[in-house]
Design a protein that fits this description.
This protein is mostly helical. It has 16 helices and no strands. About 60% of the residues lie in helices and about 0% in strands.
């Protein structure tokens, strides 16, 4: 099936799952991520108590992240603030239709259970990292960063901190979130360089969480390419054994970019009764809510059967 990439309001081609090849994911499943280092970072060497203290940070850092958590909670319960964010994303061209609040909440749950949690758990298992403890470190470092799975309520610097601290399966979704801020991508590049120069204000706490010593250099290289051409080949990380499950792989294709994720959200039922049935009856992602061009690739490779 031939699909055409759309352009955003800035005249750039939009990163989407329309230019994703399953081969990119399947090949990555058989090897480690490009340039991933075997050198152990502090996250892998230091005592858990010391890592927790580093993640908490200085009083100034605690004040800053408390403020950002308050902003996130405000945006969560004050709908006009959230609506402004969504309208901005629609104006850029990332969203064709704004989902209802019910679709957003249940869509966020689907993203978490189908993609984020199983992918992260599988990846961290390959690194001999306890997944639960890793989430505790992330919470201590930036509670607002784990309070909103779809990222439409958090401040700019929470998105940036999340990108800097977590070795991403694919950073495209979060880079698209940053486009809602006029200086989002500028600041992303600046702060990634600060991490490499070891002068970032939160360097100590972020490096208590990041397990790959080469991640920030790889991220910076990709951000520069993305800013020139968002449709650049996406930066896909190995995910342990998770991609052996075709349904996880389908979820990764749908939730890897903001554009495709919001198409999924909009296809969900729009009443609580049907949404609750959806949660109960679909322990794995339901292809009926997924993009046809992605499904065709699965059918061609016999990864899924047509109904």
């Amino acid at each position: 099936m031939k699909v055409v990439l759309k352009k955003d309001k800035f005249g750039r081609f939009i990163a989407d799952n329309k230019n994703i090849s399953l081969d990119d994911y399947l090949l990555q499943s058989d090897s480690e991520s490009e340039n991933e280092s075997e050198t152990a970072t502090d996250r892998l060497k230091q005592h858990p108590i010391k890592l927790m203290l580093r993640a908490i940070g200085t009083p100034k850092i605690i004040l800053n992240k408390t403020k950002r958590l308050a902003i996130t909670l405000f945006n969560t319960f004050y709908y006009p603030a959230m609506k402004k964010r969504l309208n901005r994303l629609k104006e850029i061209g990332f969203i064709e239709q704004i989902p209802s609040q019910k679709q957003l909440w249940f869509g966020a749950y689907d993203m978490l259970r189908y993609f984020i949690s199983p992918g992260a758990a599988s990846y961290y298992k390959t690194k001999n990292i306890n997944f639960t403890f890793h989430q505790i470190l992330r919470f201590l470092n930036d509670p607002s960063g784990i309070s909103d799975p779809i990222g439409i309520r958090v401040p700019r610097d929470t998105i940036i901190c999340h990108l800097l601290e977590v070795v991403h399966a694919n950073p495209v979704y979060d880079l698209q979130l940053l486009d809602q801020f006029d200086d989002g991508l500028d600041e992303m590049e600046k702060q990634t360089k600060q991490m490499l120069d070891k002068i970032h204000p939160r360097y100590n706490s972020i490096m208590a969480i990041t397990e790959d010593v080469n991640y920030h250099q790889n991220l910076l290289n990709y951000v520069k390419k993305y800013r020139i051409n968002p449709a650049e080949r996406q930066m896909v990380r190995a995910s342990g054994m998770a991609r052996e499950d075709a349904y996880f792989l389908l979820a990764e294709c749908m939730f890897g970019t903001l554009v495709s994720a919001f198409r999924y959200f909009n296809r969900l039922p729009n009443n609580f009764s049907d949404l609750l049935k959806h949660v109960k009856n679909n322990p794995k992602i339901n292809p009926v809510y997924c993009d046809e061009w992605i499904l065709e690739q699965f059918y061609e490779k016999d990864l899924l059967m047509k109904n």
